[in-house]
Amino acid sequence: MLISEVDNFERWIHETKFRIMRPNTMNQYGVVLDDFGMETMLDRLMNDFICPLSRVFFTEFGGSTLDSHHGFVVEYGINRDVELDFHVDDSEVTLNICLGNQFSGGELFFRGVRCDEHVNTDTQSEEIFDYSHVPGHAILHSGRHRHGARPTTSGNRINLLLWCRSSTFRETKKYQRDFSSWCGECRRKKKERERMSVAATKEELLKRELKSAS
Q1: Which of 9, 17, 58, 205 could serve as a FRET partner for 120 with CA atoms 20 to 30 Å apart?
Q2: Greatest C-alpha distance within the chain
Q3: Which of 8-12, 42-46, 58-62, 94-98 has the lowest mean pLDDT?
Q4: Percent of the chain scored above 70 by pLDDT?
Q5: What angle do CA 143, 149, 151 make, to 5 degrees?
Q6: What is the mean pLDDT of the chain?
Q7: pLDDT at 210
Q8: DSSP for 91-124?
């Protein structure tokens, strides 16, 4: 039903040349679901389904304080968007549901969680994860988890996304400097500093022992 509504809406836009707000700056096709009067339904989806899971799995990203959302449908395929560049979402937690239809390609590729400062840093081998869409299935991930979508090579793919946000987390983050609890690069640099500190301490102790022995 939702897919047919989106198709009818796109057809109406094309015929009337009516200009609408697209879901985000990256997608040229798709619609904001609030334009369909679905805000109340999305509120319930976030509060009843996403929030309980986020409190367990995404606490460090504000998962316990989600209080707003941006819901939209995107379309990929022939005469639509083909792929999605590498990026992070404007969300704390993202729900991505594949609605259909028949398609090939379009896999998501994830490449590690990053803070703003390190969003363009290299990917470590253990951070590589690919996900293939299946109609009727969904993936829930941190908005800070860097990802993109490979080209949809045939057919048409439609996905519903719900970007869930926390005003508390965003305000708190302004005053933080250390994100090593969740940023892969911050964590790597912290471990490297600790390793160098331990090595320097061992070297200093060895020097003192040699000096005492002489």
Answers
A1: 58
A2: 91
A3: 8-12
A4: 88
A5: 165
A6: 89
A7: 85
A8: SSEEEEEEEE-SEEE--EEEEEE--GGGTTSPPP
- Distances 73 to 16, 27, 54, 131, 181 between C-alpha atoms, Å: 21, 10, 22, 19, 32
CA distances from 57 to 52, 70, 88, 212 (A): 9, 20, 18, 53
Residue with tokens 């363009």: 120
Could you identify the residue written with the tokens 């996403």? 50
Q: Work out the number of other CB atoms within 10 angstroms of the CB of residue 122.
A: 10
Query: Which two structure tokens, joined as six digits, stand for 1?
Result: 């039903």
**Amino acid identity, residue 47?**
N
Return the amino acid letter for 71.
G
Q: Model's pTM, two decimal places?
A: 0.85
